[in-house]
Every structure is written in C-alpha cells, then in structure tokens.
Amino acid sequence: MKAETVSTFETIKASEDRFQLATYKKMPVAAERGQGVWLYASDGERYLDLYGGHAVAGTGHSHPHVVEAIRAQAEQLIFYSNLVYSDVRARVSEHLVSLAPQPLSKAFFCNSGTEANENAMRMARMATGREKIITFTGGFHGRTADAISATALGKYREMGKPNVPGHLFAEFGDIESVEKIADETVAAIMLEPIQSMAGVRMADAEFYRALRKLCDERSIVLIYDEVQTGVGRTGEWFFAGNEAGAARVPDIITLAKALGSGVPVGACLVTEKIASHIKENDLGTTFGGGMLAMAAVKATLEAIEEDRMLENVKAVESHLRERLSEIPQVVRVQGLGFLLGLEFEEKAAPVHKALLERRIITGTSSDANVLRLLPPLCLKREEVDLFIEALKEVMKLAKQQL
Ligand SMILES: Cc1ncc(COP(=O)(O)O)c(C=O)c1O
C-alpha cells in the first residue's frame, strides 16, 4: 500500500474545492474525530459543537454504544434488503413503535428526511384517493421533487422547477388560512411542528389542536415532519403528543437526522388506518431497513434511554435559558428543548463567525437575526457555561466596535 502523506487543513481544502461541487458554504474546519459534544479538527483544535453535526449527532459524536453496535453488526452482516426478515430490524421496529404516541403503530424505513417525506405524501394520497398537499410558509421538507415542491422556504421550490403539481400553501400558525384551502381534494397537511430553518418558529398550542380537528372533520391526513424535532430533540421522543402541541398526534411522523446517530436512515411512523391502505410493492427502497442502519437506530434509542438524555435536555434547556437571560442582546429565545433559536437585535452571522473563532459551532437560519442551537442531547451545564462566557465576550467586543 502507498504511504500517505500527512494532510494539512490547506491541502484538504484545496483537494475538496478542486474535486467536489461547491454546494455548501463550508466552515474553515476539517473534521477528524468526535467525542460527545466535541469535534476535533485536523489541526488538533477542538470545537464545542452546538450545531450537533447538522442536527444529526443526537447521541453526541461517536457514542461508544453506537460505535460498538455498528462495529458488531458490520462484522455479522452489513446489508440485506427487505426481501428477508432480520432480527435487528424486527427489534428496532418494535422499539421505535413502542416509543411513538398512540395511535402510531407501524414503521417504514428509508434513507433520508426528504425520502421519508416523499413516502409520507405518497401514503396520504394512497389512503385518501386525493392528490393535493398543503404545507406552510417557512417550512422546509427536503430537496427531491415532491418534497422541494412542498417547501415554501426561500428559493428551494424555485430551484426544484418544474414542481410537482397539487401543492398548496398556508400561513404557519394561522388556522383560517388552512381552512380556506383545505377542501375535499386535499390528501394531506404537512408541517414541521417547529420550523427550524425558518428561524425556529413554533405556533401556539391552539394551532396544533385546530389542525388535528380540521383534518379529522375533512378526512385529511396530518403529517408531522419531525426530521429535526424527533428522536428526543425537544426533551420528549417526538413533538407529536407533546404538551407544546396540545398533546395532538398526527397520522404520520417522518424522521431522519438523529435517528441513526449519523448512519443515513429515515423513517415514517404511521397509524394502523394509514397502514391498511398500503399493500405489497406500494413503497420501497433498496437500502431502507438495512442491517447496519438498523443496528445504528437500535443503539441510538438505547443510548438515549440508558444515558437519560431526555431528562438531560429538559434540565440543561432551563439552565441555558436562564443563562441567556444575562445577555441583553438576545431579545428572544424560541423553540423547545435542544432546538433553540436565539434572536438578536442585530444580524446573527457575525456572532456565528465570532463564536467559530472561539471554537464554538452554532447554526444560522433563514431569519438573519436568529442563531440556531441544535446540540447533542448529552450537552452539560458546564458546556453551556463555556458558550455563555464566549457569547458575552463576543457581545462586549461588538459593543466596543460600535
Ligand atoms: C425539517 C426537515 N425536513 C426534511 C429535511 C430533509 O432531510 P434530508 O437532508 O435527510 O433529506 C430536513 C433537512 O434539513 C429538515 O430539516
């Protein structure tokens, strides 16, 4: 084997820039390894990752239980499709369904968030015999044809032209705007229950209650896109059933991101009623439900339970909110659990940059004044304190520069 030369950040960057499409505005960091909330870069620096590897590292980076499960499964069998039964798939389906609020009772596995949403919309059309889908201003649902056509946020839908027909849009949080267009041709209403990319926007509990009622009255399928809010991020397993959403439960939940701790996997959780309309060969994907992904999901759910991460999210969220109140430039904290939007008086991008210079990774959003936090569910109070001190320093410097 040829001896490899040591790569510096500059050589890694130059190579990626030369051989990869420039589809992402990257941070000046070459990720090398991770442990919990920490990301270690190729230059030896460590970063406090409050963006959780793009909302994926729910259990933290390279959680030992997940790593061991993936290693053991890889040695045993990496993949076989849904054409065969599998013990790990059987166990994880049962586990995931047991965590879901009633009446969600069956799982379908795929590979990503956008694919989960495509399948959810297809199931709604099959179950109702109708075609139209209502989604909301500010929502993001993915980049494949139907999901991008359902995405009202920014210019995504425009990029997805020609769009899939039959997509209608309502105002997030405004039930009257939904009532006006939710007629007998509508198959589903789909929403991110907390709109993350839009700047972490949440509606009043009354909105979720009214949506459920409307869907029941007009026989419309209600879909929660929980690609970001699912798998513990809000301090509960799902936003569905959560008090913040008036404890209402949709007919379908879609999941991805943190579900496999970084091994690509998506899922739809559906009611028995929806399931009754889905027959052999109606849905499918080669890789969905593969053993390696299933082992990662199983270990992810176990790690969250064993490490009591949901309790941790709730406790550390209160600490974080309390400490953020010490910073007057943060005018509002939106969201729930570890999906938080910090609204500043001024633009958030310079804050994001200054924090990165202090080795703290956060996220921006499509609301210029909102900085997003999506940390691993194992974030501790001490790490929150490190963040707060850094943020105070950044704010002090910003004031001096005025
Ligand atoms: C709410 C939501 N839905 C769907 C998606 C698409 O997921 P994926 O990138 O895995 O296709 C995303 C991705 O950011 C998301 O945030």
Give me the Rg, rounded: 21 Å
Helix-strand string? HEEEHHHEHEHHEHEEEHEEEHHHEEHEEH
**What would CATH call the homologous superfamily of the largest domain?**
Type I PLP-dependent aspartate aminotransferase-like (Major domain)
The total number of structural domains is: 2
Keywords:
4-stranded mixed beta sheet, binds pyridoxal-5'-phosphate, 402 residues, Aspartate Aminotransferase, domain 1, alpha/beta, Aspartate Aminotransferase, domain 2, 37% helix, 14 helices
Give a verbal description of the structure:
The chain has 402 residues and is an alpha/beta fold. It has two domains: 65-306, Aspartate Aminotransferase, domain 2 (3-Layer(aba) Sandwich), CATH 3.40.640; 308-372, Alpha-Beta Complex (Aspartate Aminotransferase, domain 1). It is 37% helix and 18% strand. The strands form four sheets. The protein has a seven-stranded mixed beta sheet, with helices on both faces. The protein has a four-stranded mixed beta sheet with strand order 1-2-3-15. α12 runs parallel beside α14. It is globular, with a radius of gyration of 21 Å. The protein binds pyridoxal-5'-phosphate. Pyridoxal-5'-phosphate (PLP) binds at residues 112-114, 117, 140-142, 192, 196, 225, 227-228, 256.
What's the gist of this structure?
The chain has 402 residues and is an alpha/beta fold.
Annotate the secondary structure layout:
Layout: H1 9-19, E1 31-35, E2 38-41, E3 46-49, H2 52-55, H3 64-76, H4 87-99, E4 104-110, H5 113-128, E5 132-136, H6 145-149, H7 156-159, E6 167-170, H8 175-179, E7 186-191, E8 194-195, E9 201-202, H9 205-217, E10 221-225, E11 252-255, E12 266-271, H10 272-275, H11 291-306, H12 309-324, E13 330-336, E14 339-344, H13 349-357, E15 360-361, E16 370-373, H14 381-400
Parallel strand pairs: 3-15, 5-6, 5-7, 7-10, 10-11
Antiparallel strand pairs: 1-2, 2-3, 4-12, 8-9, 11-12, 13-14, 14-16
Helix pairs in contact: 3-11, 4-11, 12-14
